Amino acid sequence: MNRLFLLLCVACVSNVLSRTAGATESPPAGTFHFIMENDLFYNRDRHYTSGLLFSWSPEESAELWKGTRKWFGLLPWISKNAGIRDSYSLGQSIFTPRDIYHDNPPTVDRPYAGWLYGALHFDMQSGKHSDQIGLTVGVVGPASFAEQSQKTCHLFLRADVPPGWSTQIENEPGVVLSYQHDRQIISSTLSSGNDLEVSLHAGMALGNVFTYANSGATFTYGSRGWGGFSPPRIQPGRLDRFFGDAPAGFNWKFILGAEARVVARNIFLDGNTFRDSRSVGKKPLVVDVHFGWSLGWDRIVLSFANVLRSPEVGTQKKCDLFGSIGLSVQF
């Protein structure tokens, strides 16, 4: 019932926005994105249990950032003629132990933690490759309001309220600098009239919240000429391009992807940087596999991905599974 409720809500919002978008033929000012990752889709409630992200990508960069083109052009692998787009995001992520029904969870279990943040991303597109540079600033700990968010959600769904949030990691400001390079290595129109695309990506994140190196591949198959959207993800998942032009009418694609991360720091497992807090041993290598679809109609895109994540906690035996749903609308 919970899954049905969430899907019905998304369908209703998509229908309303579709009517709004279809009412005008004026050029879009930008693209709004909503992303929700949650293990509720699979009747679970543990580890990385919830993520929300709201993002805005204007069609025209603000005057403040137009001078960044020459600075990014100093990097030898970025074309001086690359098109640059900026995106602004606000998000929250929630992490809990495996057992959320004890007020004092075992110290070998993942600690309670939350992450409230804002992010600025620049995407530089040139031909079949793109580069993304992002800066994320926020706070972990009680100031992230993760406790209030989860408890409110549980009350709304008439589920038991987790009693162990008093053991969450302490307040700490967080900063993460991210970079990712994407390169399309295959782009072919098959005899079916649909496109098959394969792209590789590699990047890194550096900060007191996340520090890791990542690489992976994505395979897509679907409507011809629609290469702008993929099922969205939230960091530490791969960075996705939040915009793209699509042919008029109905479009679709199926997506299969995988990413490996070598993790040096994850504050939600390692605990606070400058003060004592709960922590747990982590696995240095984490692998995500996702598969899903995107459906588009003119300026509306609805996406969903199933995500299988390998164990992150040293004592964890089974993989985590959660869903990622996204709605993108050009206004």
Describe this structure in words.
This protein has 331 residues and is mainly beta. The chain has a single domain, classed as Outer membrane protein (Lipocalin). It has 5 helices and 12 strands. Strand 6 (172-189) and strand 7 form a beta hairpin. The longest helix has 21 residues, at 2-22. Residues 1-5 and 19-24 have low confidence and may be disordered.
The number of domains is: 1
Shape from CA axes?
Answer: globular
**Beta-strand content bin:** over 45%
Unreliable sequence segments: 1-5, 19-24
Individual helix count: 5
Task: Please tell me how large the radius of gyration is.
Answer: 20 Å
Order of helices and strands: HEEHHEEEHEEEEHEEE
The H-level CATH homologous superfamily, spelled out, is Outer membrane protein
* Secondary-structure arrangement, i.e. CATH architecture: Beta Barrel
CATH class: Mainly Beta
**Largest sheet composition:** 12 strands, antiparallel, barrel
CATH T-level fold name: Lipocalin
Oligomer: single chain
Q: Portion of residues in helices?
A: 10-25%
What average pLDDT do the residues reach? 86
The order of strands across the largest sheet is: 1-2-3-4-5-6-7-8-9-10-11-12
Q: Determine the structural class based on helices, strands and strand pairing.
A: mainly beta
Task: List how many beta strands DSSP finds.
Answer: 12
What can be said about this structure in brief?
It is built from five helices and twelve strands.
